[in-house]
User: Which sequence fits this backbone?
């Protein structure tokens, strides 16, 4: 089957890293939340998450300064808030209020959890060696929360250029252990 060339700007659409999340920070007593889709698991235990936060984002300096955040995993039902948070700046706007999200205190970090999300991860920055060059933070998850009433969440996955996919059916494939 012949294939055609794909513009490099579209590679991201092939390798989207996982569910869209809401990254929450707090700085000088002011909470903020941003939409983030560039993240990846780096280690199982302790759980390490790598993420890219643009230096242009209001959350960048808060994360760099406080070295704490929460990663909040929404379901597709929160798509309007997810898109709204991604298209607005927190510099002059309270995005929690603007998009109907509820900040609740975390137990191990100052940044708030997002109550409406089915899972919440409290994180501390574990490594900043790639921040100056790539805006890449390595976070250690220090506490995790999950809603037991949401056993099979339908999460959002960013495909680029305004396109999203909703996670669908879970399948279990046979193990090929040798």
Assistant:
């Amino acid at each position: 089957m012949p294939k055609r060339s794909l513009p490099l700007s579209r590679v991201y659409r092939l390798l989207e890293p996982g569910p869209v999340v809401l990254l929450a920070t707090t700085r000088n007593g002011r909470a903020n939340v941003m939409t983030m889709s560039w993240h990846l698991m780096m280690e199982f235990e302790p759980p390490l998450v790598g993420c890219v936060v643009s230096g242009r984002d209001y959350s960048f300096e808060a994360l760099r300064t406080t070295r704490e955040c929460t990663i909040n995993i929404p379901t597709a039902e929160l798509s309007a808030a997810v898109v709204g948070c991604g298209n607005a700046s927190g510099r002059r706007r309270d995005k929690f209020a603007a998009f109907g999200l509820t900040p609740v205190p975390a137990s191990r970090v100052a940044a708030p959890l997002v109550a409406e999300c089915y899972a919440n991860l409290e994180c501390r920055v574990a490594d900043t060696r790639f921040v100056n060059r790539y805006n890449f933070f390595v976070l250690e998850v220090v506490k995790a929360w999950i809603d037991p009433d949401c056993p099979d969440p339908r999460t959002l996955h960013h495909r680029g250029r305004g396109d999203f996919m909703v996670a669908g059916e879970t399948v279990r494939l046979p193990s090929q252990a040798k």
Observations:
- The radius of gyration is 17 Å.
- The longest strand covers residues 136-146.
